[in-house]
């Protein structure tokens, strides 16, 4: 059977011929012509057009032609189904579908760039998909670092990085920021990342990205909420303020907001926390 599609193939227009020759018709012949000539040449040559709009063998919704051929011809080989999201991700620029998708795209694009003849490009591409199939069938769980000494080197490197991280000095801006936050929390001033970055003369994007490294692995917002909750628990333990007053004194917009955040951090409502404190004192 003859098959025909657009010239200059990269992903789907090489993956599909590989799938057809390996699982449907080993004697299949493939032709590549300019996009505007596919349908007329298909009729003249009695060939099946694929991977162009308006024909049966094409993309459907978020699936590519490779996916359609799998379903149409009921190909059940597990390794081919492992390949499918890799091909789909590479062909539709959704590299999040499979870790290998971006690599397949890079190699395929480079192959097409180096090879000007479509027939030769298909021949080399068949080897590429044979290799991908072998990986999917036999080598998915094999890692490159198989030798014991390689794993030992990796473990040592990881340990070194961890020690370096633990011994890393806290930068001056982080120390200054901690003091500023504590001062403003104590006086109930409004805090903003932008305002603090201007005070420290540190870019807000950098401050936001680096903040968690030096503040208990918390984002700026979570760290501020934690300090407010710490202050709230102190007020609950040492004063007779109402919950509304404590909410105001700790910078929450209202009592319901205060109650919701307090429960998120402590696992209990402020009123339940206060009752437990009174009971423990008695």
UniProtKB/TrEMBL annotation:
<dbReference type="InterPro" id="IPR020449">
    <property type="entry name" value="Tscrpt_reg_AraC-type_HTH"/>
</dbReference>
<dbReference type="InterPro" id="IPR018062">
    <property type="entry name" value="HTH_AraC-typ_CS"/>
</dbReference>
<dbReference type="InterPro" id="IPR018634">
    <property type="entry name" value="ChrB_C"/>
</dbReference>
<dbReference type="Pfam" id="PF12833">
    <property type="entry name" value="HTH_18"/>
</dbReference>
<dbReference type="InterPro" id="IPR018060">
    <property type="entry name" value="HTH_AraC"/>
</dbReference>
<protein>
    <recommendedName>
        <fullName>HTH araC/xylS-type domain-containing protein</fullName>
    </recommendedName>
</protein>
<dbReference type="InterPro" id="IPR009057">
    <property type="entry name" value="Homeodomain-like_sf"/>
</dbReference>
<keyword id="KW-0804">Transcription</keyword>
<keyword id="KW-0238">DNA-binding</keyword>
<dbReference type="GO" id="GO:0043565">
    <property type="term" value="F:sequence-specific DNA binding"/>
</dbReference>
<dbReference type="Pfam" id="PF09828">
    <property type="entry name" value="ChrB_C"/>
</dbReference>
<dbReference type="GO" id="GO:0003700">
    <property type="term" value="F:DNA-binding transcription factor activity"/>
</dbReference>
<keyword id="KW-0805">Transcription regulation</keyword>
<feature type="domain" description="HTH araC/xylS-type">
    <location>
        <begin position="175"/>
        <end position="276"/>
    </location>
</feature>
